[in-house]
Design brief:
- The radius of gyration is 24 Å and the shape is globular.
- The longest helix is centred in the first third of the chain and has 22 residues.
- The strands form two sheets. Strands 2-3-4-1-5 form a five-stranded parallel beta sheet, sandwiched between helices. A two-stranded parallel ribbon has the order 6-7.
- The protein has 14 helices and seven strands.
- The protein is an alpha/beta fold and 296 residues long.
């Protein structure tokens, strides 16, 4: 390992070699292939990876800048890839040596907050114990704080979390996630948490064209395909579903495809001729999608 050199010294470190040795590029490439769109998110992930790589190079040269702040906030609507990006971030942190294990523990309020006095601390500490050496992902984190309920124990979980985020930041990275407006209110009510968040990533909703790509990727993984009528039906379905309440981006598309598969299975089963070709077993037709209530 190189040591610190005097000002103007000739020692150097090769960032490309460090990057190759860490295999972080593989994780970034997987993220690109796995998730459609999300260009601003992917760009920010690459920026964070570059920062961590340079910090690693500085450490090799004996330049003591201290552990960079790594706790994060992911904001956006459901189904925009927050959990997937958190998993990839855990891998990046592990490969660059910032966490020991690189695993992701995903939780919600129910995993941290108890219903009785004395119940919250053990629950929260048990989750933190499982997450040590990796990343703790808290979805809908704003539900931890319920000021309207005087007997709520969420504040106790927050206080334990704050202590660990500060004192054990070398062994745990916390990612808080949820809707953007609610997260803003949550941070305003908990300045201690807000001050510990170094990176804020905003996840945009998908466009109809991106959702079509997502649907095709999902079908390909499941070894299905859309017929021409199926593709036409999907293109009509998407803007209709996007305009409805409780639309959850990729999550809603996955649910729609699951229902289309159910209708396809019933359509095939109802046929008098039960001899089915591979092509028929793989194909989602327009009628399998158009039976959705969205069209009515």
């Amino acid at each position: 390992m190189n040591t610190a050199a005097p000002a103007g010294g000739g020692e150097s470190v090769d960032l490309r070699s460090l990057l190759a040795d860490s295999h972080v590029s593989e994780v970034l490439d997987e993220l690109d292939a796995e998730l459609v769109g999300l260009k601003p998110v992917k760009a920010r992930v690459r920026e964070i990876a570059a920062l961590l790589l340079v910090e690693r190079a500085r450490k090799q040269m004996g330049l003591a800048g201290g552990q960079p702040a790594l706790h994060m906030s992911f904001t956006g609507n459901p189904g925009t890839g927050k959990t997937t990006v958190a998993m990839r971030m855990a891998q990046i942190l592990h490969r660059l040596g910032y966490v020991r294990k690189g695993h992701l523990v995903a939780v919600t309020r129910d995993d941290l907050v108890g219903q009785y006095i004395g119940h919250t601390a053990p629950k929260t500490k048990e989750v933190l114990k499982k997450a040590m050496g990796g990343v703790l992902f808290i979805d809908e984190a704003y539900y931890l704080y319920r000021p309207e309920n005087e007997r709520d124990y969420g504040q106790e979980a927050i206080e334990i979390l704050l202590q660990v985020m500060e004192n054990q930041r070398d062994d745990l990275v916390v990612i808080l996630a949820g809707y953007a407006d609610r997260m803003q209110t949550f941070f305003s009510s908990n300045p201690g948490l807000s001050s510990r968040i170094a990176h804020h990533l905003e996840f945009p909703d998908y466009s109809a064209a991106e959702l079509e790509q997502i649907a095709e990727k999902m079908l390909q993984r499941m070894q299905y395909r859309l017929s021409p009528s199926g593709l036409a039906a999907l293109r009509e379905y998407l803007p209709l579903r996007m305009a409805q309440p409780h639309f959850a981006n990729a999550r809603s598309i996955r649910n729609a495809l699951d229902r289309a598969r159910l209708r396809q299975a019933n359509r095939l089963f109802a046929r008098k001729d039960q001899a089915l070709t591979r092509e028929e077993l793989m194909t989602i037709e327009g009628e399998d999608l158009r039976a959705s209530r969205v069209f009515s």
